[in-house]
Amino acid sequence: MKNVRCEIGTGDFMAVVGPNGSGKSTLIKCMNGILRPRKGTVYISSENIREKTLREIAKKMAYVPQNKAGDSPVSVFDSVLLGRKPYINWKPSQSDIDITTNVIARLKLDHIAMKDINKLSGGQQQNVFIARALAQQPGILLLDEPTSNLDLKHTVRIMDTLKNLCKQGLTVIVALHDINLAMRYASHIMMLKEGEIYACGGREIVTEERLERLYDIKVRLIKNNGCFHVIPESSIENQD
Amino acid sequence: MRKEYKRRKQYKLLFLIIVFAALLAMTVIALATGSAPVGVPDLADLLKGSAPEFTSRVVYHVRMPRIAGAILAGIALSVSGAVIQSLLRNPLASPYTLGISGSSAFGAAFAIIVLGAGGSYTGSNDVATVVNPYILTISAFVWSLLAVAVILMLSRFRGAGPEIIILAGIIISSLFGAGISAMQYFADDVQLASIVFWTFGDLGRANWANVLIIGVTAVAVLIYFFFHIWNYKALQSGDEYAGSIGVNVRYVRLAGMVVASLATAVVVSFYGVIAFVGLVVPHIVRRITGGEEQFLIPASALFGGLFLLSSDTLARTIIAPVVLPVGILTSFLGAPLFLFLLVRGMNRTYWQ
Q: Strand A13-17 and strand A140-144: pairing?
């Protein structure tokens, strides 16, 4: 990746969009130090993350990975408690348990708290992973395609949850496939193309021309109920 | 929710207490069993201080070191197995199946033949004494690291599933097995008698000196693992996620593997290869208490001690007065279970 220069303010909802292989996931992983860029760095409130340990970063930034949990059985409660890891030395304290309980209640997961996460639906699992990230008490939440395996209802639920968190002051940065979803929810959009920023800014940067260049396909941008929709042009003629 | 969490914790604590009680009971049984005519009444006499010298010699110098050796070796091997399984996220991994035991055994044999660490043979009770136990242990440890290096390098490849890693372990085992055979071929009779010992594990060579070394190692290793329990838990959710919650994945994995192979090497260098304990015990514990490391590790330790002590007591009595090396017994018990795991793992449900 190169030429990725961008500032994100507190409480922003930033969607990172772009074609497959444009570097969305890579960028997200660079942000929290899992991947170390050869050059350049990331600053969190003017602190360079290169000078910080993974543990210090983990107290400021939480990450919801795209791949699912491992296959060993683990309860929702224990899974969320794992989010307290940056604060735990060798045993969780009472306050770690309290925070875990609160986060589970906040995301309304109480009724499944003792279930094995491998037995939950995709939407519930994603909620658990968000809860696990919140247990880190981060200022910034990074998500890598959180809706990729979800149906329409759960997609909207997850995005609503993220939007609410944003309103409570959390900065949310999410890699998304779906440009419509990005325009519906995000306050800021970053377009990535071949590892570089193609455009970055508010929703207004999304134009027909840019989308066509980005995805290399003809599109139409339609406004409906104050909301923009991207209609890609199909190579097959419409029936009617 | 919080009540439920506490209740589950108590249930698991209860399991620990039961296993501990069973371990104590088994210790008494083991103390009262053996070829010498010393039974429970004699033990009672010993406690009262009215036992003949013969009884106290049998108990203090023959049975007790063997029992302590069995418990400590069981702890070391089982905990290493549990941690290795967590570190590699591989349900088939254990010191034995990854070839760490085999390479340690080679290292021990290497110390005797090439480094001249041992070889004097005392025929009285079939014990091949070792002149310098430290060189033996260090050599076993250094050679075991070779197996660890190969396994860690292989597990960096994304495509390398659990089975591939175990295949590599089998290859490492047979390579070092061939190495041991080659050394046996060139060894003299005295050395040969010493080496044969490492190809099957036997607790008959337990004495207070090696029990002390294994004990110190086991305690140190347990303490190290206890402090890393949450790191091992984090690894279960994937390397990238573990990194995002502040775990230095490469360091934790490398250091954990080295510590686990140290524990294995110390046991192997004194008692030989005791197969499958490190594989079987964590699996049994997982079935009962679930896979969470904060219980898995202490429970594997206690249950491992119980398992090896029971196996050894059985091995001492099953065809008495002949004392069977415990390694032969654990192989007979462990091999079918390993096969069972493999078959069940075909539809990816190793852990359940």
A: unpaired
User: Is residue B200 helix, strand or coil?
Assistant: coil
Does pLDDT of A51 surpass 90? no
Residue A230 reports pLDDT greater than 60 = yes
Instruction: Break chain B into its structural domains and give their ranges.
Output: 12-346
Which residue's structure tokens are 């046996």? B184
- For residue A240, pLDDT over 70 is answered with no
Which domains, and CATH codes, for chain A? 1-60+138-202 (3.40.50.300), 68-134 (no CATH)
The type of residue at B215 is: G
Chain A, chain B: beta-carbon pairs less than 8 Å apart? 96
Lookup result for tokens 């390579």: B175
Q: What are phi and psi of B51, to 5 degrees?
A: -85, 150
Q: Which residues of chain B have pLDDT under 70?
A: 117-131, 158-159, 345-352
Paired tokens of B337: 């279970």
d(CA B71, CA B62): 15
- Average pLDDT estimate for A77-105: 92
| Helix B100-113 and helix B189-199, axial crossing angle in degrees, nearest 10 | 170
Residues 6+ apart with CB under 8 A from B40: B28, B32
Predicted ipTM? 0.89
Give the chain A residue nearest B8 (alpha carbons).
A114
**What is the structure's pLDDT at A48?**
87
* Both tokens assigned to B28: 């008494």
pLDDT of residue B123: 41
Phi, psi of A138 (to 5 degrees): -85, 165
Interchain pair A72, B291: CB under 8 A: yes
- Contact predicate A229/A213, CB 8 Å: no
Neighbours of B114 (CB within 10 A): 10
Query: Confidence band (pLDDT; 50, 70, 90) for A68?
Result: low
- Model confidence at A64: pLDDT above 90: yes
pLDDT the model gives residue B337: 82
Query: Residues A192, A18: contact at Cβ < 8 Å?
Result: yes
The answer to whether residues A12 and A187 touch, using CB atoms and an 8 Å cutoff, is yes
- CB burial string B179-218: b at 16+ within 10 A, e below: bbeebeeebeeebbebbbbbbbbbbbbbbeebbebbbebb
Output the CATH code of domain B12-346: 1.10.3470.10
Nearest to A72 among B4, B227, B236 (CB): B236
What residues contact A55, with CB distance under 8 A and at least 6 apart? A86, B246
Nearest CA in chain B to A57: B246
How many other CB atoms are found less than 10 A from the CB of residue A228?
A: 16
Give Cβ neighbours of residue A150 (< 8 Å, ≥ 6 apart): A122, A123, A126, A158
Question: Which residue, among A72, A96, A107, A143, would best test binding to B if mutated, counting the most B CBs under 10 Å from its CB?
Answer: A72
A44 or A167, greater pLDDT: A167
